[in-house]
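ESCALATION

Customer reports they have been waiting on this structure for their group meeting. Please prioritize. Original submission:
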Amino acid sequence: MSSRQLKVSKTRMVPAEKEHVARFCPRFHHAVELIGRRWSGAIINAMLPGPQCFNELMAVVPGLSDRLLTERLRELEAEGIVRRNVLPGPPVRVSYEMTESGKALGPVIRAIGKWAERWVELENPK
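Update from on-call: job pushed to the front of the queue and completed.
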């Protein structure tokens, strides 16, 4: 094996193809796919200020259908990012809030927002 085919790791030389595989992290991949799913990032961002009811989220995220909001909230709840709370009535209401792991996404979401402000250009409306 030539020196061009080796990469230096912290402690030893490893074949370049093994170093490439080691950089793939299934947890990172899952997290990026989760928050990068259509509307998930916008929903998480809308929930960072505190608990909100379904209709409040619908109002904050324009263009989001109630079916898709329901689907994303269920996914985020299943992942432990969002907690669903049933508020006694009458009428009975449902509120959604970020869990501790969801709140920990705050700096990440804000960093993506700052990056987008600097680097993402929107198409001019016609």
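Sent to customer with the following note: The first helix runs from residue 16 to 22.
Escalation resolved.
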